[in-house]
Amino acid sequence: MELAAGGFSGEQFREACAELQQPALAGADWQLLVETSGISIYRLLDQKTGLYEYKVFGVLEDCSPTLLADVYMDLDYRKQWDQYVKELYEQECNGQTVVYWEVKYPFPMSNRDYVYLRQRRDLDVEGRKIHVVLAQSTSVPQLVERSGVIRVKQYKQSLAIESDGKKGSKVFMYYLDNPGGQIPSWLINWAAKNQSRTKQEAQNQRDLIQFSANPNTLQ
């Protein structure tokens, strides 16, 4: 599931905006995983891989949309709080900004790394200011696979944020991540479920970022 050259289309950004206004849960077997503190997390099982896609909807109180989007995009800040980051940086490749990210996995599992495009647009949709961030796996010749590290080739994320009309932010997030390798799918999904429960209980931007950064992190 690699992204072709040229980045994201306007339609992909519009789809994220649409889900922020009206969750698209019909027509598929999306299951409510947890609902707490104004946040609802749904998951959808992929019968072929045994892994789940996730959708998150809700309101983060006392955190402005602009601040939330800015902090989410700040890779340097993320390296300060995410103990699982081994390496994380942006690099210009073929005229596009690509993110390289290596994630520490506990022994005896191999670390995983990601190469993905990430784009942010601040949109005006019928008078509503919406911040949208899209990310998806890609491949570039400058960032080859490393020995002893498993390259994640199926990664996709969407994030849309707008004001809740008060001091907080209304949020939609979609997440799909297949870490590959010899990790049982039940273990990946168990870890994702438990981190979802703990991270989303706190209503602030750091908790949202931690969940969106890596819901498959084993703790």
Describe it for me?
There is one protein chain. The protein has 219 residues and is of the alpha+beta class. The protein has one domain: Alpha-D-Glucose-1,6-Bisphosphate, Chain A, domain 4 (2-Layer Sandwich), CATH 3.30.530. The protein has 5 helices and 10 strands. The chain has helices at residues 10-21, 65-73, 75-81, 185-199, 205-213, and strands spanning 31-36, 39-45, 52-60, 85-93, 96-103, 111-125, 128-137, 149-152, 154-163, 169-178. Strands 1, 2, 3, 4, 5, 6, 7, 8, 9 and 10 form a 10-stranded mixed sheet that branches. The chain is globular and about 50 Å long. It starts with 9 loop residues before the first helix and ends in a 6-residue tail after the last helix. The model is unreliable at 1-5 and 196-206 (pLDDT under 50).
Topology of this protein?
Elements (H helix, E strand, L loop, with lengths): L9 H12 L9 E6 L2 E7 L6 E9 L4 H9 L1 H7 L3 E9 L2 E8 L7 E15 L2 E10 L11 E4 L1 E10 L5 E10 L6 H15 L5 H9 L6
Parallel strand pairs: 6-8
Antiparallel strand pairs: 1-2, 2-3, 3-10, 4-5, 5-6, 6-7, 7-9, 9-10
- End-to-end separation in angstroms reads 27 Å
- Could you tell me the mean pLDDT? 81
- Series of secondary-structure elements, N-terminal to C-terminal: HEEEHHEEEEEEEHH
Q: Please, what is the oligomeric state?
A: single chain
Q: State the name of the first-level CATH class.
A: Alpha Beta
Question: Which residues sit in consecutive blocks of at least 5 with pLDDT less than 50?
Answer: 1-5, 196-206
Domain count, please report it: 1
CATH superfamily: START domain
Helix-residue proportion: 10-25%
Question: Which second-level CATH architecture applies?
Answer: 2-Layer Sandwich
Q: What is the global morphology?
A: globular
SS element count, helices: 5
Which band does the percent of strand residues land in? 35-45%
DSSP summary, beta strand count:
10
Radius of gyration, taken over Cα atoms and rounded to an integer in Å: 17 Å
Main β-sheet, in a few words? 10 strands, mixed
CATH topology (fold) name: Alpha-D-Glucose-1,6-Bisphosphate, Chain A, domain 4
Structural class determined from secondary elements: alpha+beta
